[in-house]
Design goal:
The protein is an alpha/beta fold. The chain is built from 13 helices and 13 strands. The protein is globular, with a radius of gyration of 20 Å.
């Protein structure tokens, strides 16, 4: 069956809050439960496309539901041509803007469209996108928040062992540079010189402070410095990238490929890590990947390992997959890491099937 033979009936939406094995502790927020909106795109022909959005909290989930319902009503009866529908979906919500919740809703819709489309082709999504089904290198991002140095050193070793990783991310952004250096050095001493250690400031620094801490980290063997200041301060990030030797990573909060293009043009990053929920789903990601390829910028992912593995395997300048297991409890066969790689399932679509018992257990009101 061809994708264009499918007709959209509508979206079925559910909201869940899943306890995390380790709370995510950053300078900005602490998250103990991962809140997701589950999306089932139903077609008249019986093929269902699945995706989910990360709402961060129950109120966050609730904010996305109206926009998704709006798209569900607007797209009912449309033929399933994902790229065409992506532009139509943006147009439907255009008066609500092209960023924020409007783009998140478009992304979730687009992701579900592509899952259904790949199922109609009887191929994994990566093959539909022109990539090869090959293992994708991943780093463990399931911990190492703002915790004391001794705890961070112990946790780093545990995180590496969970999937045979050779890379793990360290959250920084404590009150002082000295505290950050103490934690990073403790982790480095614990894992040895060969483990790759990117760090993430979660946008908490001023530009001046980011330059100061970045220059200090230049001597510590840091793999990249992620979001040292506000993601949308292009001039500030460009200054940091110019003055700090360690590569600057940005992009998880970029809305749409247009933002990625601007950041690259303004030299506001060395590496880019789009988030499939914000960049515009599969369609937005692939457009961003073309922009990054033209500029020879390495592309990593942010969250959503099920989709991100397919997307990175189809991205010419693919770099690293950020692995989190937060959505694993609500899936029948969640993504997993062996020997430091995510292996893409050889099944049609993305490979998401809901564990309905767990969905019911963690369900919260819409």
């Amino acid at each position: 069956m061809r994708g264009d033979a499918l007709t959209i009936r509508g979206l079925r939406l559910r909201s869940v809050a899943v306890p995390m094995r380790r709370p995510l502790i950053t300078r900005v927020v602490t998250i103990e439960k991962a809140a997701f909106v589950l999306i089932d795109l139903e077609t008249e022909e019986g093929i269902t496309g699945r995706s989910y959005l990360f709402g961060y909290s129950a109120p966050g989930n609730a904010c996305m539901i109206p926009a998704l319902n709006w798209l569900s009503d607007a797209m009912a009866g449309e033929k399933l041509d994902p790229e065409t529908l992506f532009d139509k979906a943006r147009k439907v919500l255009t008066l609500m803007g092209h960023e924020g919740i409007a783009m998140m809703a478009v992304s979730g819709f687009d992701m579900a469209c592509w899952d259904a489309y790949a199922k109609s082709q009887d191929k994994p999504l990566v093959e539909v996108l022109g990539g090869k089904n090959a293992p994708v290198p991943a780093y463990n991002s399931n911990g190492l928040g703002i915790i004391p140095a001794e705890a961070a050193a112990e946790e780093a070793q545990t995180l590496l062992a969970e999937g045979g990783y050779r890379a793990v991310k360290v959250r920084l952004g404590r009150d002082t540079l000295e505290e950050d250096l103490e934690v990073f050095r403790a982790v480095r001493d614990a894992v040895g010189p060969d483990v790759i250690l990117p760090v993430d400031f979660n946008q908490c620094l001023t530009v001046d402070e980011a330059v100061k801490r970045g220059k200090a980290l230049d001597h510590e063997g840091v793999y990249w410095i992620e979001e040292p200041t506000r993601y949308d301060d292009y001039a500030g990030n460009a200054r940091i990238a110019a003055e700090v030797e360690t590569p600057i990573q940005n992009g998880e909060n970029f809305y749409g490929p247009e933002a990625a293009s601007r950041a690259i043009d303004e030299k506001a990053l060395d590496y880019i890590m789009p988030d499939v929920e914000r960049i515009g789903g599969v369609t937005g990601w692939m457009r961003c990947a073309k922009i990054a390829e033209a500029a020879n910028v390495p592309v990593s992912s942010h969250l959503f390992p099920e989709f991100s593995a397919h997307l990175l395997a189809a991205t010419p300048t693919a770099h690293w997959l950020e692995f989190t297991d937060w959505a694993a409890p609500i899936q029948k066969t969640p993504a997993c890491v062996t020997d430091g790689y995510v292996h893409i399932p050889d099944t049609p679509g993305v490979g998401i099937e809901w564990n309905e018992e767990a969905v019911e257990k963690y369900s919260i009101p819409l």
